[in-house]
Design brief:
The chain folds into 2 domains: 120 residues, Rossmann fold, CATH 3.40.50; 106 residues, Winged helix-like DNA-binding domain superfamily/Winged helix DNA-binding domain (Arc Repressor Mutant, subunit A, Orthogonal Bundle). It has 8 helices and 12 strands. A hairpin with a 4-residue loop joins strand 7 and strand 8. The relative contact order is 0.11. Bound molecules: calcium ion. GO terms for molecular function: phosphorelay response regulator activity; transcription cis-regulatory region binding. One of its GO terms (biological process) is regulation of DNA-templated transcription. This is DNA-binding response regulator.
């Protein structure tokens, strides 16, 4: 589990980082809103702790931008004062929870656990684009009732794209998500993997789901139907 802490006050950052590492979380830190936004967009964190008062870009703006860009990572907002206004602004911007400073570390950990539990439920929700389904709980992929066997990289690529149906996944986004943070697109590895996926997912079917967005990247979309996500039983708790 990797958590991003966005907070400019070094003392607080150190305190949170040290405490969370003792709870066996991996912690990444950003010291201003701009850096926080960039890191959150590039990496896939399990959770973000986001202070409101930040240099360059405040926490509310960071949160809004992340949600606009379809980054759905759970966010706990830190507010300096216990004012209804700050809490409402934070939640309106798309934060999942908030904590008023100063807070007890135990409370932060309890909130993190609660959000991660909720997230786990979401992550076990079956994904569907057209007649293609992907079950994150079992890693089973079916198209039109027929099971598709994927390598682990192909699976991760398909999972990544199916979580953004109809949205462009740039080569940079795909590269950094599948091959890591320092990915440089100096090879055609992404195109090669997309062609593997196409062979398995689209070949032999009437409608194509994987589309090339010229000069930018790829997207998955069922152009003949509305896109749904099926909720399985675990989501009804
Ligand atoms: Ca601050």
């Amino acid at each position: 589990m990797t958590i991003l802490v966005v907070e400019d006050e070094v003392k607080i950052t150190r305190f949170i980082k040290k405490g969370l590492e003792m709870e066996h979380y991996t912690v990444d830190v950003a010291y201003d809103g701009k850096e926080g936004l960039e890191k959150a967009e590039i990496n896939s964190y399990d959770l973000i702790i986001l202070d409101i008062m930040l240099p360059k870009l405040d926490g509310i703006e960071v949160c809004k931008k992340l949600r606009e860009n379809k980054v759905e990572t759970p966010i706990i907002m830190l507010t300096a004062r216990d004012t209804v206004d700050d809490r409402v602004r934070g939640l309106d911007a798309g934060a999942d929870d908030y904590l008023v400073k100063p807070f007890a570390f135990g409370e932060l950990v309890a909130r993190i656990r609660a959000l991660l539990r909720r997230e786990k439920t979401i992550k076990t929700t079956k994904l569907q684009v057209g007649d293609l389904t992907l079950d994150p709980a079992t890693h089973e992929v079916f198209r039109g009732g027929k099971e598709i066997q994927l390598s682990s990289k192909e699976y991760r690529l398909l999972d990544y794209m199916m979580r953004r149906p109809g949205l462009v996944c740039t080569r940079t986004m795909i590269g950094e998500h599948i091959w890591g943070y320092n990915f440089t697109d100096d090879s055609n590895v992404i195109d090669v993997y997309i062609s593997y996926l196409r062979r398995k997912v689209d070949s032999g079917f009437k409608s194509r789901l994987i589309h090339t967005v010229r000069d930018v990247g790829y997207k998955i979309q069922d152009k003949s139907q509305k896109i749904n996500s099926i909720k399985n039983g675990t989501d009804k708790q």
